[in-house]
Amino acid sequence: MKQFASFVLDTANQCLVRHGTPIELAPKPFAVLRYLVENPGRLITHDELLDALWPETYVQPQVLRTYVLELRKVLGDDAGQPRFIQTLPKRGYRFVAPVTEKPAAGPDVHAIPEAGGEPAVGHAAPVHVGRDAELDLLHGEFQLLAAGRRRMVFVTGESGIGKTALVDAFCRQVSASASAVVARGQCIQGLGVSEPYYPVTEGLSQLCSGPEGEAACRVLSRLAPAWLAHGRPTNTAGHDRSLGDLCAALEELAAEKPLILVFEDLHWADGCTLHLISALARRRSRAGLMVLATIGPYCEDIRDSAIGLKHDLLMRRLCTQIALAPLKRSAVTTLLSRELDQETPPDGLSAFVFQRSEGNPLFVLAVLENLIALGVLAQTGVDGRSVWQQREPFPETEAAVPQALANMVELEIERLREDEQRLLEAASLLSIAFPAWAVAAALAQDPVETEEALDALARRLHFVVRAGKDELPDGTTSAFYVFAHGLYREVLYQRQAFARRARRHIRIAERLGQLFAGREGDVARERALHYEAAGEMERAALVLKAAETGRIAAGVC
Fold first, then answer.
1. Pair 509, 491: CB distance under 8 Å
2. Relative to the CA of 97, which of 12, 302, 343, 510 has its CA 20 to 30 Å away?
3. Is residue 241 located within the same domain as residue 296?
4. Do 94 and 145 share a domain, yes or no?
5. What is the dihedral angle through the alpha carbons of 334, 336, 341, 345, rounded to the nearest 10 degrees?
6. 79-88, 187-196, 492-501 — most confident range
7. Structural domain contains residue 117
8. 3-class DSSP state for residue 382?
9. What is the CATH classification number for the domain harbouring 214?
10. Is 228 helix (H, G, I), strand (E, B) or coil?
């Protein structure tokens, strides 16, 4: 372990520690910090850092700036008067703080205890690993129902982040204590136009068929009869259904015992369902009623979507949002232990899976299953019991995307418009970070229009995040962006036909030559990589040879 100032860099557990408290970092920022700390006092050029962390892969240098900014926030560092990371403009970085060796602490003192002291349960659903704080928030919202304060709670996050697992864990706990009635409705893509109120009707049907069903049907018959047909909730009831009637009925049902309406995947909800939620949120009467909805990253038009509704209610302070972040490394370790049904995962497994998955629970499980399928992990008998052990080395380069995960990402991509798919495919030709001008060059489009389209995409989807602006040699500026996860980039890259990829790579290489006319040597390596990716090996060699000739002529060693 390396110590500097009040920080300890724990390389075994891949976290930063300050005064005994672990500070979790995402894999790439941690790798940047580790390389700098392990090479203190000397200039680390951009190329050296990129080659060390992304071998055999071209990555835009701008991504380093994003990670260094993140590290400065964590360290409390000031770029103007650096105590830790000094920036040497156009050259690289230097770690300026004194670094000393610190003995290893033995067992993993940073591992978090399992919630409630529950034993590891193997494949029996690791329901809420690493989500104790979020569960506490939900229970806090639930306690407010006792005072008659209706609650609207939106659980948000990217695909696979664990929204449904969190809601399931909460509903199991309140149902087990018989302290609330829970009714669920599932929003389904494509049903919003043909079947208005589909999830609402499903939830009402579940309510009427449950233990409180007889009372629920009586209340609906009296206060909202248009929502029933033949005494049961149905989607074929008359068109004279009143939202006010249904709101009044739900509030009366919640008077006896708190009522929780759960709507899964609200991003696919029809407009009528969203209007009902909006009406329930705005009513002033006291009610022990909670609407608990999960919202993913999809929406066609933010103005008429669940995301638009959420923004409006948040602005009016009529709802609570619980945004799920990726799991920390310690939680990934716990999740792996539960899945493998053993106290400690094989050495190095947690670090490898955390780096590949970046803390997304679904990705964690997909990477684990892929390692088992590849024979990297296998069960062997030890002292009369079966134990998972590493049988093959972990891949040193980026592992192939597990097929199940690739299918999920592909499905997300297919939901986008064709022009949005083209934007993301072109972006994948660069690296995790990519500039708007390069996407425009790949697609032979106007740079300004391309940047506007990428901005709109970043606002609406979780695929990409705007990370800043760069000044180009001609004096203009261009925004650059970062993929939310490397797996998205890999799937987007592989789904393109080679001929199409090649044409786009060549356009980027040619545009680089135009932008850096007279300074081609500065981008020779980058241009060569694009030509190589396009199969143009001779052109790649010519670019590198011209750059070397220029350096010799200029007297540069």
1. no
2. 12
3. yes
4. no
5. -90
6. 492-501
7. no
8. strand
9. 3.40.50.300
10. strand
Q: Which helix (H) or strand (E) holds 151?
A: strand 151-156
Q: Are the beta carbons of 72 and 80 closer than 8 angstroms? A: no
Domain shared by 425 and 363, yes or no: no
Name all contacts of 528-531 with Cβ < 8 Å and 24+ positions apart.
Answer: 529/58, 530/429, 530/505, 530/506, 531/505, 531/506
Decide the pairing of beta strands 151-156 and 289-295: parallel
Q: Which of 323, 352, 373 is the last residue of a domain?
A: 323
Residues 369 and 417 in one domain: no
Is residue 412 domain-resident? yes
Residue 318 in this model has a pLDDT that exceeds 90: yes
Name the helix (H) or strand (E) containing 153. Answer: strand 151-156
Q: Tell whether the model's pLDDT for residue 412 goes beyond 90.
A: no
Residue 250 dihedral angles phi and psi, to the nearest 5°: -65, -40
Q: Determine, yes or no, domain membership for 201.
A: yes
Instruction: Looking at the structure, tell me whether residues 313 and 451 fall in a common domain.
Output: no
Residue with tokens 């610190």: 102
* Of 364 and 431, more confident: 364
Task: Extract the tokens encoding 392.
Answer: 């093959």
**pLDDT at 235 (0 to 100):** 62
DSSP for 231-295 reads TEE-TTS-TT--HHHHHHHHHHHHHHS-EEEEEE-GGG--HHHHHHHHHHHH--S---EEEEEEE
pTM above 0.85, yes or no: no
- The number of folded domains in the chain is 4
Residue 550 Cα distances to 516, 520, 555, 556, angstroms: 14, 9, 9, 9
Q: Could you tell me if 244 and 384 lie in one domain?
A: no
C-beta separation of 263 from 187 below 8 A:
yes
Q: Which domain holds residue 77?
A: 2-101
412 and 545 fall within a common domain: yes
Average pLDDT, rounded, for the chain: 83
Q: Do 410 and 541 fall within a single domain? A: yes
Beta bridge partners of 261: 183, 291
Q: Does 554 score more than 80 pLDDT? A: no
Given this model, what pLDDT does residue 110 score? 34
- What would the two tokens of residue 437 be? 């001008």
- Dihedral pair phi/psi, residue 262, rounded to 5°: -105, 125
Instruction: Reply yes or no on whether the pLDDT at 322 is more than 90.
Output: yes
Q: What pLDDT digit, counting tens, does each position of 77-127 carry?
A: 877 788 899 988 878 899 988 888 876 544 333 333 333 333 333 333 344
CA 173 to chain centre: 27
3-state secondary structure 496-556: CCHHHHHHHHHHHHHHHHHHCCCCHHHHHHHHHHHHHHCCCHHHHHHHHHHHHHHHHHCCC
11 DSSP assignment: T
Nearest one of 335, 339, 260, 269 to 304, comparing CA atoms: 269
> Quick one: pLDDT band at residue 308, thresholds 50, 70, 90?
confident
CA nearest 119: which of 342, 389, 420, 412? 342
The CATH number assigned to the domain holding 71 equals 1.10.10.10
Torsional sign, CA 229, 212, 124, 337: positive
pLDDT band at 191 (very low <50, low <70, confident <90, very high): low
Alpha carbons 398 and 57: distance in angstroms, whole number: 10
